[in-house]
Design brief:
Blueprint (H helix, E strand, L loop, with lengths): L4 H16 L2 E3 L10 E4 L3 E4 L5 E3 L8 E2 L17 H4 L4 E8 L2 E8 L4 E4 L7 E6 L5 E3 L8 E3 L3 E2 L4 E3 L3 E7 L2 E2 L3 E2 L4 E3 L4 E10 L13 E9 L5 E9 L15 E10 L4 E9 L6 E2 L9 E6 L1
Parallel strand pairs: 1-2, 4-5
Antiparallel strand pairs: 2-3, 3-4, 6-7, 7-8, 9-14, 9-24, 10-11, 10-13, 12-23, 13-22, 14-15, 16-17, 17-22, 18-21, 18-24, 19-20, 19-22
């Protein structure tokens, strides 16, 4: 069967007009022009630029739900990795993290990044030390270097070789804390609450010289490794313990709220002078005495 050319031209013009016209479902005069409009309890609109509006007459975003009290959006769950989903994808995670029962995450292309209530991610680091490893890093009574048999007296010594209990960002594992060195690097600028304690094994304490002290110190260095801040807590003891078998546990703790720039380094160190002679003092390593915690505020 042959079709008349005029008839084909007429069909083409008719289809062209149909494609350029509005499409209305349940409505006689859809508006705006060049859109699909569904008249249910709320309007569903796709404008000529491809923007979608639900209950919104003139959508301004790719998907616009800002129609007042009923403008919520449901986000589903997926087992895809962040890399599989791609940067910019979003999902709902029903698993609890730090007391939060479910939260939204977005993919940065590598990991899923949680968005907790108020949009505030949170860094949490916890660690415990149950050995005598330390590193003297400034000129003092003892030479600069690593020690494994106690804290050198009258010398600035980093506490090293920690056992990491937690290093997370809103429930997701991270590597902001290096348990080998005890150094924390801030992944983003903000206020951090930091505390650490240490205790020396029971022994005699000489205070006759009037210089007995134990110092717990937080040190902040910038990304160029220059010292920009040190916060100290000093504990002194007014009386000698006397000779053996008299022995006491001495130690100190330092707690501070610090503003760190992204890339700043936070690290605990100690300075002690509690011996009858300038010897090294082992830590009390029975557990629970030598601990640190860092929490983003």
């Amino acid at each position: 069967m042959k079709l008349n050319k005029k008839y084909i031209l007429f069909m083409g013009l008719g289809l062209s007009n149909l494609f350029l016209a509005q499409i209305g479902i349940g409505i006689n005069n859809p508006n705006p022009a060049n859109s699909i409009e569904i008249n249910t309890t709320e309007k569903f609109i796709i404008d000529k630029t491809g923007k979608i509006g639900v209950g919104v007459a003139a959508p301004k975003m790719a998907i616009d739900l800002r129609n007042g009290a009923n403008g919520s959006m449901a986000i589903g769950m997926t087992n895809q990795t962040a890399a599989e989903a791609g940067a910019g994808a979003m999902r709902y995670n029903p698993s609890p993290a730090i007391g939060v029962q479910g939260y939204i995450e977005y993919s940065d292309g590598t990991v899923w990044v949680p968005i907790l209530p108020y949009g505030k991610p949170r860094i949490v680091v916890m660690a415990e030390k149950t050995n005598n490893n330390s590193t003297v890093f400034e000129t003092g009574l003892w030479p600069i270097g690593n020690y494994t048999d106690g804290i050198p007296g009258r010398s600035s010594a980093y506490l090293t070789s920690w056992t990491e209990k937690l290093d997370s960002d809103s429930g997701q594992p991270r590597t902001n804390f290096d348990p080998a060195t005890g150094e924390f690097i801030a992944p983003r600028s903000g206020v951090y609450y930091a505390t650490f304690t240490f205790a020396l094994a029971p022994n005699q304490v000489n205070t006759s010289s009037g210089q007995n002290q134990t110092e717990a110190i937080w040190e902040v260095r910038n990304s160029s490794n220059a010292v920009i801040q040190r916060i100290k807590t000093n504990n002194g003891y007014p009386q000698d313990t006397g000779n053996a078998p008299n022995a006491v546990i001495v130690g100190s703790a330092c707690t501070a709220s610090l503003y760190l720039n992204a890339g700043d380094k936070l690290r605990p160190f100690v300075w002690i002078n509690v011996s009858w002679d300038p010897d090294k003092r082992p830590l009390l390593n029975t557990g629970g005495y030598n601990v640190l915690t860092i929490v983003e505020q």
